[in-house]
Structure formats: structure tokens, C-alpha cells
Write a structure and sequence with these properties.
- Helix 7 crosses helix 9 and helix 8 runs antiparallel to helix 9.
- The chain contains 21 helices and no strands.
- It has 2 domains: 181 residues, no CATH class; 245 residues, no CATH class.
- The longest helix has 36 residues.
- With 453 residues, the protein is mainly alpha-helical.
Length: 453
């Protein structure tokens, strides 16, 4: 980001939005069914998922490659980026097997291997992109690094499951009566989620151009940096966990409530840290030219926190067999964004885009939590109370660091002091005000051990 122009990131973000169509139809929801499949159905479901992924990947990459000129024109991308678009069109094919292998790892709870593989892939991406950027490769540094990292991720995932599953090109053994309805809802959900995830990018690209999209996409990625990996981990653990506990409503309710207690203790203060020190972190990490992303980043940090908090509720619905909720909840997010994103972006630029996205998390997340707690007959206040307590600290901390602990000193030492003060303040607050919640943390281990046992 220090070396490359924001336009390069805008071009990559534009193609990522288009490539996201592949994520919808890559296996028509069959891959997600792997997580909820029985042991007897696992291999057959995985085979069908992989075959569908590969076929759709080939077709989609071919279509994007042939349509590169049209894409460039519609997305306001200059012709000198045409070859970059053609190379980016190969991403669906390169990524085609990742989904099946990833879901298979989740189904078998091989999270250690998954995390190590993802860490290696991400590190490789960072090293390759940095070296190529310093070598004046421009946008190619991002594209090549992405594609090498995707290949490494695919190979790493497969190594983790090679001992338990060997792909076979066969359509036999699948419980289609179960897979097709569930996969259909997952596909409908994916269509809605795709539109939701890319409607903001499309609005910025069309109304404001690739440079502003570069600022917005980087703000979004930075905001999701904290919640993305943790949220994915929580969602992928709670899927098989909730499915097994669904036979006992009491056990499932306890697990869901405990997850919300954990979120209440850790999520609000973590994201408020990012909000308070956003300007300092942007200057430190990527430099002065990226300052326009500070306010959007702060708004999207709130969105990211709310999305993380509501993430575990989504797995309650398939675990309880409420398949319609899989597609209905994303529709709420989409309708909220569709109503707000155009006027917000038109009137307030990328700040308005961020506010529109934040509003969807408030509406959709609230509905998700209320629906999940009602199905489990949980007192919603028992889930929300830890969040309210932590939010009181966050508001207080905002005023302290906004109006008290301020100075013209921009040195690293003063920044370190302020960060240390923030951590100590929250540690004191948690010990004094959130004793009850802290005492519940050992229940996480009990729930996990009972599940594994």
C-alpha cells in the first residue's frame, strides 16, 4: 500500500467483486452440506462438491477471460489494465478446489492444520507481493501473489485430508433428498450474500471511480482483519458443534449463551482500540497518502464488530433444521443495503457507503440474535448484558482518548504509552465490572470437551 497506487487496489477489488459470482455457483451449496453431513455421506458429498467446483471454475474463468474488454469498460478501468483483468479472470479456476477441501477440514475439525496452512499461505502472499512491489511490478505484484497463495492453500488443505478422503469422480452415494434442499438454501443465501458483499463496491466504482474504491476496499479489508479470521473460526467451529448439541436444547442454549459472553468480554474493547488509534495505525502502517481511509475505517470497525457478534447465531438455524432462515436473514441485510447505499454514496462519498453498510449490521444482526434466542428459549438480556457492559467502557474510553489524553506529540513512545493505558483501563474495568462474565469462561472448555467426548 505504501508503494502501489490506490487505483491498482481498486482494479483488483473490482475484479474480486465479479469473481465473487463464482463463489455463489461453485458447487450450488453442496460444499456447505459437507459440514452437516453424516460420516457415511461425507465422502460422496465431497466428491460431488469437487466435481461441480471444477466444472463451474473452468466455465466461469473462460467467460471472464473472453469478456475482459467489456468488464474494463463497464467498471471505468483504463485499457492499460486489460491484461491484468485477463489474468485475474483465472482466479475462479485456481480457487475451484479450495471450497471442498476447506469444508472437509471443518467437518473433521482439523483446525490446527487449517490455521497453519492459512498462515503459510498468507505469509507467502505478503512476501511475494512485497518483493514484487519493490521490484516495480505494480498491480502484477498483487495478482501473482494472490494466485500463488491460492495454489499453496489448495495443496495445503488437501494434504490435511488426504489420509481420510481420496477424491473419486462419482455421483453415487449422495443423499440427494437432504443435500439438494439444504444446498438450494445455501445457494440462495450465497446469491444474496454476493449481492450484499459487492453492492457497496459496485456503487463506489460506478459513482466515485477506482481511486475511491481503492480507499474503500482497503478500509473494509483493514476493518475485517480482526473479525474475519476469528469470525470464520467461530462460525466453522459452531457449525458442527451446534449440530451435535441440537439434540439437547439446554446444552445448545448454554453453548450459544457462552459464546455471546465471550464476545461481550473481548469484541467491543478490541474494536474500540482500533477505532481510537485508527489514524495512528494508518500513518504507521501505510503512510500519509492513505489518510482518506481513516474515517471509513472507524465506521467499518463498528460494522465488523457487530457482524462478528451476530456470526455464531447463523449456525443455530441449520443446526435446528430451520433452513429457510439461511436465506431469509441475508435477504434482510441485502434489502437494507439496497435502500441506503446509493443515496449514502451519492451524498457523502465513501463515508456514506460505510454508514449504509453499518446500518445493515444493526438491523440484520439484531434480527439474527432475537430469532436465535427465541428458538432456544433464551433470555436475550443474558446474551446482550455483557455487550452492554463492555460498550459502556468503549464510550468512556472514546471520550478519554478524544478529549483528555491528547497532545501534539506524534512520537512512537507516546503512542505506546496511550495504547498501554487503554489496555490497563480495560483490564481494570473487566476485573471490577465483569467478574461474573469472566467466571464463565471455563465453561467454554467444558462445552468443548463434552462435544469431543
Amino acid at each position: 500500500m505504501r508503494i502501489l497506487d490506490p487505483v491498482a487496489f481498486g482494479v483488483v477489488a473490482s475484479m474480486a467483486a465479479i469473481n465473487g459470482l463464482f463463489e455463489i455457483f461453485r458447487d450450488f451449496g453442496i460444499g456447505r452440506c459437507i459440514i452437516f453431513a453424516s460420516d457415511e455421506e461425507l465422502a460422496a458429498t465431497s466428491n460431488v462438491s469437487l466435481m461441480t467446483n471444477l466444472a463451474v471454475g473452468v466455465l466461469f474463468s473462460a467467460a471472464l477471460f473472453l469478456g475482459a474488454t467489456i468488464i474494463a469498460k463497464r467498471m471505468n478501468i483504463e485499457e492499460n489494465y486489460l491484461n491484468a483483468i485477463r489474468l485475474l479472470s483465472l482466479n475462479p479456476l485456481i480457487n475451484s478446489a479450495i471450497s471442498t477441501f476447506d469444508n472437509h477440514l471443518q467437518r473433521r475439525l482439523l483446525f490446527r492444520h487449517k490455521v497453519l496452512t492459512e498462515a503459510a499461505s498468507t505469509t507467502g502472499y505478503a512476501l511475494i507481493a512485497t518483493v514484487l512491489a519493490f521490484s516495480d511490478c505494480g498491480i502484477w505484484s498483487i495478482i501473482i501473489a494472490q494466485q500463488v497463495a491460492a495454489v499453496a492453500l489448495t495443496v495445503g488443505y488437501y494434504i490435511g485430508i488426504a489420509g481420510s478422503w481420496k477424491p473419486v469422480m462419482s455421483l453415487k452415494g449422495v443423499n440427494y433428498d437432504k443435500v439438494l434442499p439444504m444446498g438450494g438454501h445455501f445457494t440462495i443465501s450465497s446469491v444474496i450474500v454476493y449481492i450484499y458483499n459487492n453492492l457497496d463496491n459496485m456503487a463506489v466504482a460506478v459513482l466515485l471511480g477506482p481511486q475511491q474504491l481503492g480507499y474503500y476496499s482497503r478500509s473494509y479489508n483493514y476493518a475485517m482483519m480482526s473479525s474475519g479470521p476469528f469470525g470464520n473460526l467461530i462460525a466453522k467451529i459452531t457449525g458442527p458443534l451446534y449440530t451435535k448439541l441440537a439434540g439437547s436444547v439446554d446444552k445448545l442454549s448454554q453453548a450459544v449463551r457462552t459464546v455471546y459472553v465471550v464476545f461481550g468480554i473481548f469484541v467491543p474493547p478490541t474494536f474500540m482500540f482500533g477505532i481510537i488509534f485508527a489514524r495512528d495505525l494508518v500513518l504507521l502502517a501505510v503512510g500519509l497518502k492513505w489518510l482518506p481511509m481513516v474515517l471509513p475505517l472507524q465506521i467499518l470497525m463498528i460494522f465488523s464488530a457487530l457482524r462478528l457478534i451476530s456470526s455464531s447465531a447463523s449456525n443455530v438455524f441449520p443446526a435446528l433444521g430451520k433452513h429457510r432462515m439461511i436465506s431469509l436473514l441475508p435477504l434482510v441485510y441485502l434489502l437494507s443495503l439496497a435502500l441506503l447505499v446509493y443515496p449514502g454514496t451519492k451524498w457523502l462519498g465513501i463515508t456514506g457507503t460505510c454508514l449504509a453498510v453499518l446500518a445493515t449490521a444493526v438491523v440484520g444482526g439484531s434480527i439474527s440474535m432475537i430469532a436465535a434466542t427465541r428458538m432456544l428459549k433464551l433470555d436475550i438480556m443474558s446474551c446482550v448484558k455483557p455487550l452492554i457492559k463492555a460498550s459502556v467502557f468503549c464510550v468512556s474510553a472514546w471520550f478519554i482518548f478524544r478529549y483528555v489524553l491528547v497532545s501534539t506529540d506524534n512520537s512512537m513512545s507516546w503512542l505506546g504509552v496511550r495504547m498501554t493505558i487503554y489496555v490497563l483501563l480495560y483490564a481494570s474495568f473487566a476485573v471490577l465490572i465483569m467478574k461474573k462474565e469472566l467466571m464463565e469462561l471455563p465453561f467454554i472448555n467444558d462445552i468443548w470437551m463434552n462435544y469431543r467426548g
